[in-house]
Specification:
The complex is a heterodimer of chains A (187) and B (318). Helix content of chain A is 27%, strand content 27%. With 187 residues, chain A is of the alpha/beta class. Chain A has a single domain, classed as Rossmann fold, CATH 3.40.50.2020. In chain A, the strands form two sheets. A five-stranded parallel β-sheet of chain A has the order 3-2-4-5-6. A three-stranded antiparallel β-sheet of chain A has the order 1-8-7. Chain A is globular and about 55 Å long. Chain B folds into two domains: 138 residues, Rossmann fold, CATH 3.40.50; 148 residues, Rossmann fold (3-Layer(aba) Sandwich). In chain B, α1 crosses α12, α2 packs across α12 and α5 packs across α6. In chain B, the strands form two sheets. In chain B, strands 7-6-5-8-9 form a five-stranded parallel β-sheet, covered by helices on one side. The chains are: A alpha/beta (187), B alpha/beta (318). The interface between A and B is medium-sized, with 32 and 34 residues.
Chain lengths: 187, 318
Amino acid sequence: MGPTEVLVLDAAEMEAALDSMAHRIAEGSRGGAPLRLVGVRSRGVPIAARLAEKLARLLGEPVPVGALDITLYRDDLGSGNRWPVLLGTEIPFPVDGAEIVLVDDVLYTGRTVRAALNSICDLGRPARVRLAVLVDRGHRELPIRADEVGLTVETRRSETVRVRIRPVDPADEVIRESHPSNPEAAR
Amino acid sequence: MISPPPAPAWNRKHLLGLEDLSREEIVGILDTAESFSEVSRRSRKKVPALQGRVVFNLFFENSTRTRTSFSLSAKRLSADVQDFSASVSSLTKGETFIDTAKNIEAMGADVLVIRHPTPGAPHLLSNHVGASIINAGDGAHEHPTQGLLDLLTIRRAKGTIEGLTVGLIGDIGHSRVARSNIWGLLKLGAKVILCGPPTLVPRGFERLGCEVAHHLDEVLPRCDVVNALRIQIERQQRGLFPSLGEYSHFYGLTQDRLNKARPDLLVLAPGPINRGVELTPEVADGPRSAILDQVTNGLAVRMAVLYLVSGKGDAPST
């Protein structure tokens, strides 16, 4: 038996969640510093791009998007069998003095966010950094919380939350996967 | 901005030469190097990836730029770096090469970067120590990171390597840079022309799939890229060519010769260059020269290689 999939957000619900996040990001902006989005690779980047389109309409000016590869800052680098492939960091604007919104798909242990903060701060000194995530699934291992959350989902540690988003995926959806505790016995 | 297609995962513990690598592995290193170029452009040029790892430079032959480049690359990855020069070591007291390496490994070295006058020395070492080995030049055999940085420089300038005609000029027979270039360029789909005096460009290279030529004025107009290899002055004393002046007359890259080449010809030279011998100052400092880009790209390539071999070093040895 494969994993059981539960649909958490469909395309329309995801669109609504992103709309609401964009509004709150715009309202929460203090002004005085240029607003910039930075997506954490890989799914954080298309989410940031989607939010940036909405923010541009709300604010009447373009909101540039960067992509952050946190691999070189991971605290578990080298603990696996395979060395992760680098996708590269591309930040096409100065980080110094900017109001940065870090964007990721799922907030879980908080370790990715810790790595992303260190990485961003190596690139410059932002005026302010906020965190926006599409899904908060709990189970934090570090004192980190998001400023803007699309949806909070109760999960078990054994479960996986998978975000699919166009154009990198065929459709917009969020799935919760439950894995049988013993795959061998379940077969 | 959306993720590029990921490079294939690297699965090797050592980098001994380009001859053993597949086209996909070479492309994977170059793509990884592109990520590290971004690190080198930051004002704070350092990432924590290799924190706590120890990289030893074991140089049994003189080198300034390669050793410096490896040291700086390792430091940019936050590794600890230690230099070891043969001239000041116990080698002069009779310790064997492998014993020296084992001693260094006992100090906790994770990566050994080795340059040695004997071809195959890094391969030998890889059978005797547990650390990752990176070949930084073994005799006339290979200098893989130089080959890789030449490939990266060409790919960045031309967009691709497939289908290009690349001329390697000068002392091919004694050159590890030439061999690493040949393997890398052929695997990535370039046509390679080797050009120099017959004493320095043996016909045997045709067996690898290269064209062998002796008249630069005939070869140059066909090239998209030329790599002017360093003439080792000591060769001239062994009578392999009559004089530096004569070498320069027939094989030196001059502005006159460049005027008859393609307007977008890219000029590489592995350095250290002998100004007025392999190329004139006008060419070395001219708009088609990528000599300083090569040095910058060398850092990115060495960071990529250190990163990749370090990953495999962590895998359980099965």
